[in-house]
Write a structure and sequence with these properties.
Blueprint (H helix, E strand, L loop, with lengths): L2 H16 L25 E4 L3 E2 L5 E3 L5 E2 L13 E13 L5 E6 L4 E2 L11 H4 L1 E9 L2 E2 L14 E10 L12 E2 L4 E6 L5
Amino acid sequence: MKKQTKGAIAAAAAGALLLGGAGSLAMWSDSEVVGGGGAVTAGTLQLAPCAPVSGTGWQSTNPTVKPIADITAWRIVPTEVLTFDCTTSITADGDRLAATIAADTSTITTGTTAAPGATANQLKDNITATTVVTVGGSVVTAASPLTEADNGKPVTVKVTLTFADVQLLVAQGASVNLSNLAIKLQQQAIPA
């Protein structure tokens, strides 16, 4: 090997050692503690159990209001409207917290039987649910949500289930199980 080649190889090896073997150069750096920092704590958003306003909380509302003593013994008919009224409260702790409450229809389950000519899922498929929530007489909406200011205040919830105007044998003898019907407290996008 020529002396020039040996010298070039030795110079390259020395350069690699000087670079720390990893191909990086040492650079100056510095750091400072960010002023005004401190511990940040996550807020909370929780829903208390919703107690019926009176009786079982269930009633049929059209054409007149009729309390329902035992929802499992009630036989709903097309165009009938059932409501469940209850009172709850929320734990809301968050400076920019916003939330709403709505019935979670995924918790309504379908029975397994129906009358001849109908199918078991037809009752659930023909029921729509709406929810009205009020705090201190004001209706809660996405535009006017629950906030930290509502922490611990009584919240009134009305869930309305409407059976569609079905024809022929649709949904006859079918059932839905409302024993696990839930209302869901859901945080909304952070308001501007």
